[in-house]
Amino acid sequence: MKNKLFFSAILIASITACVPARKFEDLQKKEKACADEVTKVKAQNLAYETKNTELNSKVELLNKGVNRLKADTSLLGKSLRMKERQYDKINALNERIQDQLESLQRGSTIENQRLMNDLTATRVELQRKEDELNRLAKELKLLEAKLNKKEATLNQLSADLESREQRVKELEAMIAKKDAAVKALKDKVTDALLGFKDKGLTIEQKNGRVYVSLEAKLLFPSGSTQINAEGKNALIQLAEALQDQTDLDLLVEGHTDTDKLKSASHPKDNWELSVLRATSVVEIMLANSTIDPKTITAAGRSSFLPVDETNKAKNRRIEVILIPNLDELFDLISK
Predict the structure, then answer these.
(1) Per-residue confidence at 62, pLDDT binned at 50, 70, 90?
(2) 66-125 pLDDT, tens per residue?
(3) 209-215 and 317-324: which strand pairing?
């Protein structure tokens, strides 16, 4: 600015000294214009200086801002680098996790396939067991039907068994009653014929019957069909003991020994002799008692039922078999 003023003064002096007045006036005008210009320039320069000061202030502020930005940028760079390292670590961790996830997925796929195979096998086995269960259920129904049928049969059998047991008990009771009656009958006959005990008379109870055996020597002379007095007495006592027995059948059997008869008249053989002797006994018993003729039978057995192969005398005999009436017992059995 000082150089410009100095230059203007020299220029004015030069113009004043060298040029005429007219030119001087021109020069003064020019000087005035230059002064005005200088003033203007000074004003502008002052404005520029003010503006420069303001700009310097702004620059300083901007520099401070830049420094702060640099500091912030440095801090941000450090933070960024730290974040980048953390990001790298996160990326590495993410990659490992991804690898592990893929590995798990691959393993899961294999495991899922294995599980699917197991599930399929389980379904097949379950279906097999269900089919087996259905088959067993059908068999069970058939078995239940059979069991029900068998149970019904068993119930019927049980009922039948109870009925039979009842019948058996009734039979046993009836048999016991009959046995007691037969024993009582035997005792009664034994008492009635007690006087003939040692004279060829035996009384035996067997098969529910009473067998009164009288040897021929007690009743008949040898080869005869006529009963002697002692024999007649024995038969009368026997008949009297039996005449009040209403449920009793009498079977009179004549027996001989094996000796052959040699006679042209009757009896001509052992068959006829055994029959005639049995008939004689029946006639004596009926003639001397109230025995019902319908309950007595005469029969000849000849020599074919001996009681002693070595003793012919014992084989020659009359057997009066006392047969209790078992119709009631047979009726019970036939039910």
Answers:
(1) confident
(2) 787 777 777 777 777 777 777 778 778 778 887 777 777 777 678 778 888 888 888 888
(3) antiparallel
Tell me, what CATH number does 212's domain have? Answer: 3.30.1330.60
Bridge partners (DSSP) listed for residue 254: 300, 318
Domain that holds residue 255: 193-334
Neighbours of 2 (CB within 10 A): 6
In single-letter form, the type of residue at position 200 comes to: G
Q: How many separate domains does the chain show?
A: 1
Q: Give pLDDT tens digits for 227-263.
A: 999 999 999 999 999 999 888 899 999 999 988 877 7
Please indicate, yes or no, if residue 51 is contained in any of the structural domains.
no
Is 97 a domain residue? no
- Helix (H) and strand (E) counts in the chain: 7, 5
Tell me if 242 is assigned to some domain.
yes
Identify whether 328 is part of a domain. Answer: yes
3-class state of residue 20 by DSSP = coil
pTM of the entire structure? Answer: 0.52
Phi-psi region of 325 (alpha: psi -120 to 50; beta: other; left: phi over 0): beta
Q: Which residue has the higher pLDDT, 82 or 285?
A: 285
Measuring CA to CA, which residue among 323, 322, 318, 324 is closest to residue 253?
Answer: 318
E runs forming strands in the chain: 201-206, 209-215, 248-255, 296-302, 317-324
